[in-house]
């Protein structure tokens, strides 16, 4: 496996899971999900409107929580 096709998965505190490299996303039934790119941010907070991808909603939720 070349360095450019190596898959790297990185988590960010209170943020998404970043997947970079050669990978295939699948839904719960095993059907492929077209990511359209070689790097994607996957939602961990469950609030994204474009699941399984992150749309940044976690940042808004964190701001609202901090304001309380």
From TrEMBL:
InterPro entries: FeS-contain_CDGSH-typ, MitoNEET_CISD. Residues 20-64 form the Iron-binding zinc finger CDGSH type domain. Pfam families: zf-CDGSH. One of its GO terms (molecular function) is 2 iron, 2 sulfur cluster binding. Keywords: 2Fe-2S, Iron, Iron-sulfur, Metal-binding. GO terms for cellular component: cytoplasm. Gene3D superfamilies: CDGSH iron-sulfur domain, mitoNEET-type (3.40.5.90). This is CDGSH-type Zn-finger protein. It comes from Kribbella italica.
């Amino acid at each position: 496996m070349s360095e450019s096709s190596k898959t790297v998965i990185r988590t960010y505190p209170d943020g998404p899971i970043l997947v970079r490299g050669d990978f295939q996303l699948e839904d719960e039934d095993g059907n492929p999900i077209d990511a359209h790119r070689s790097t994607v941010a996957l939602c961990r907070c469950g609030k994204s409107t474009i699941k399984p991808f992150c749309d940044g909603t976690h940042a808004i939720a964190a701001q609202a929580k901090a304001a309380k």
